[in-house]
Specification:
Helix content is 21%, strand content 16%. It has 135 residues and is of the alpha+beta class. Strands 3-4-5 form a 3-stranded antiparallel β-sheet, with no helix packed on it. A two-stranded antiparallel ribbon has the order 1-2. The radius of gyration is 13 Å and the shape is globular.
């Protein structure tokens, strides 16, 4: 099951529905970090950037991923516990970067760039970071 966007990350009711639908389609209703299906685990839309001072564009699908777990469990928990790993794999993005310009190691798609409308574009081998998986 795909959970709705958490209230603290809510980009607005219409945008939240649009983002959730785009992510379910783009990510095949699977966790972007481990590939676990929404049928087997709780997955939820999670922003790739923190929202301090409202500087982050919340209406772009490039800035969101489906991740399994909660803030302390699953891949969402791992992103919180291991920020270096999350940043290195593109699961999180620095506040001064455009998520559409930062590739992500995606469990469903491999190393890709994501666009604002839910598009996925493969990254040539030499253009992206090497995947690091400590587990």
């Amino acid at each position: 099951m795909i959970s709705p966007i958490a209230r603290s990350d809510d980009p607005g009711p219409v945008t939240a529905v649009r983002i959730t639908v785009l992510l379910a389609d783009r990510d095949a209703s699977r966790c972007a970090a481990c590939g676990q299906s929404a049928d087997a685990a709780e997955v939820a839309p999670v922003p790739r950037q923190c929202s301090r001072l409202g500087q982050v564009e919340r209406s772009s699908a490039a800035g969101w991923l489906l991740l399994c777990g909660t803030a302390t469990t699953g891949c969402r928990g791992r992103v919180a516990d291991e920020p270096g790993w999350a940043r290195q794999n593109g699961l999180t993005v620095a506040a001064d970067r455009d998520p559409a310009e930062v590739p992500v190691w995606h469990a469903v798609h491999g190393l890709v760039w994501l666009d604002a409308d839910g598009g996925v574009y493969p990254v040539p081998d030499s253009a992206g970071p090497g995947r690091r998986d400590a587990r």
